[in-house]
Each structure stands twice: as structure tokens, then as C-alpha cells.
Amino acid sequence: MLKLTVNGATHEVDADPDMPLLWVLRDRLDKTGTKYGCGIAQCGACTVHLDGQPARACQTRIGDVGTAEVTTIEGVSGRVAEAVRGAWRKLDVVQCGYCQSGQIMSAIGLLAANPKPSDADIDGAMDGNICRCGTYQRIRAAIHEAARTLA
Questions:
Q1: What does the mean pLDDT of the chain come to?
Q2: Domains and CATH numbers, the chain
Q3: pTM as predicted
């Protein structure tokens, strides 16, 4: 049994330490907001936070999580998260929505570390988050909008 703290709650999970965090979240803990996209940490759909830092759940082994606090899209909260969510709604960022939980988690990580990002900062932080619908301009605009809200 492995102990895992997800969204503030401690869970005991009977899983192989090599199992990806993504599968534990989705299949064992029913946290289905974290999406499977590519399985090789290239698309960002599976982005969660480990101790507040964005991480790809598809390539994070459950045995490597240790005592880190895992936060999924279902549990992310606070001023930065609310600013990002509000900007996403205001600018109607979502098209199909599949990638958006990962996009939002990466955006929150960026703004928590850099509350006034430039376009280059945004591009760097969001690199690896793929949107098949191509809403990149709306995503960047929403991050700038969230930054203005936080200012």
C-alpha cells in the first residue's frame, strides 16, 4: 500500500510503485479531469501539480511521488486558480475542452511563479501543452487577463 495525498486528502492505494500517477488518479481515485493524451509527457493533457509545480502525471511514477501533495484540476483552488478560471470563461477559451485541464494547471503554475508574464514567458511555460483545436491565442490572452486580475 502506498500513501498519496491528493487534493488535501490522504489515500492508501494498492498499486505497483511503477504505475503512472495518471492511472492511479483516474482508475483508482476517480479524478478523471486529468486526461490521457499521449502517454509520453509531450501533450500536457495530464498536467497536475506536485507541491505546486506542474508535472506530467503520465510519466510520474506513483512510487516517486513520496510525500508530495498532488493537486488535480478538481482540487486546484486559491486566488490564482480563480483568476485563471475566470479569464478562461470570460474569453471563451475552450473549444473541444479535452486539453483544457492541463492548460489551466500549467497556466496556474506559471502565474503562481510569475504574476506578470511576457508573451515569451507564456510560450515557454505552456510549451508542451498541445491544443488540437488551436486555441493558443485565446489561451495566451486569458493568461494575460488573469495576470491583470491578479495585479
A1: 96
A2: 2-71 (3.10.20.30), 79-150 (1.10.150.120)
A3: 0.95
